[in-house]
Design the sequence.
């Protein structure tokens, strides 16, 4: 019989249980095969599950593998924030001093994290995206609208067309014309299957501007990954704010962002972002948020 593996679940990008985006973190994942990890992720059926392995380099914190219910992904936002919190709380529970910074090894590259603390205890983390902004193909307003059960007039192209963007994981990013259009959005699996794979993505991130231009309301749909809607998507948010920051005319600039997601599905989430421009280009992208532990237990694979 295989040895049991501990797990902890956390809600991420929220400061209260049953909000934000749930994540399962499997600790001591050595000995699990890729197929077993995928089966475990499907069993949890969260948008992502992480598996914590020993780091390859001694100066790094851990090697972290991330799985959706259907596939492994090279990078994602809320899994990094949630895993950092779980590891910090594990260290704190032993009475040891927890480092302020962590570095995770992931398929997309190294992900540095800074722990967020309140009253001396870890409550969340800020991650730095592992890759620079990469802009891919754009598609028509009509094709994008069809993916979301909307009308072409609901797509707002003034700032950018519906565009694939990535800082480690690609998304089709589209601005919508109104908050009401964002509420009406609903993914159509058959159209996602036809339109998204040729673009090199399987997910749509739709947003509208809030009262401030640096405030966004967003939703993310990925039925091809078994995730009809994600309550909070750090990797898509990071790609989107990097894309928006790339249109600035300033050579050197730091912009703070606030993104609300998940409210339309009953799991309100708040993501805080930072983008920096150096020498006329987007230099780095950060996403931060709180997380709260919810459950813990032991899983067995036989």
Sequence:
């Amino acid at each position: 019989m295989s040895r049991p593996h501990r797990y902890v679940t956390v809600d991420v990008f929220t400061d209260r249980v049953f909000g934000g985006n749930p994540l399962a973190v499997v600790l001591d994942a050595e000995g699990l095969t890729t197929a077993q990890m995928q089966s475990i992720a499907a069993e949890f059926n969260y948008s992502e599950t992480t598996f914590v392995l020993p780091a390859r380099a001694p100066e790094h914190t851990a090697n972290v593998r991330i799985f959706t219910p259907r596939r492994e992904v090279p990078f994602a936002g809320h899994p990094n924030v949630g895993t950092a919190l779980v590891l910090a709380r594990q260290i704190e529970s032993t009475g040891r001093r927890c480092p302020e910074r962590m570095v995770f090894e992931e398929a997309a590259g190294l992900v540095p994290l800074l722990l967020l603390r309140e009253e001396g205890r870890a409550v969340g983390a800020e991650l730095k995206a592992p890759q620079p902004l990469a802009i891919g193909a754009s598609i028509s307003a009509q094709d994008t609208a069809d993916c979301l059960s909307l009308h072409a007039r609901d797509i707002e192209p003034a700032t950018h067309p519906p565009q694939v963007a990535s800082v480690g994981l690609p998304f089709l990013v589209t601005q919508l014309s109104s908050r009401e259009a964002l509420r009406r959005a609903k993914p159509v699996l058959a159209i996602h299957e036809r339109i998204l794979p040729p673009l090199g993505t399987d997910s749509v991130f739709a947003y509208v501007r809030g009262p401030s231009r640096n405030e966004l309301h967003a939703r993310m749909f990925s039925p091809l990954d078994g995730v009809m809607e994600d309550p909070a998507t750090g990797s898509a948010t990071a790609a989107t704010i990097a894309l928006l920051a790339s249109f600035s005319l300033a050579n050197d600039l730091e912009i703070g962002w606030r993104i609300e997601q998940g409210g339309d599905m009953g799991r309100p989430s708040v993501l805080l972002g930072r983008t920096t421009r150096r020498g006329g280009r987007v230099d780095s992208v950060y996403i931060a948020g709180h997380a709260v532990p919810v459950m813990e237990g032991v899983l067995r694979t036989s």
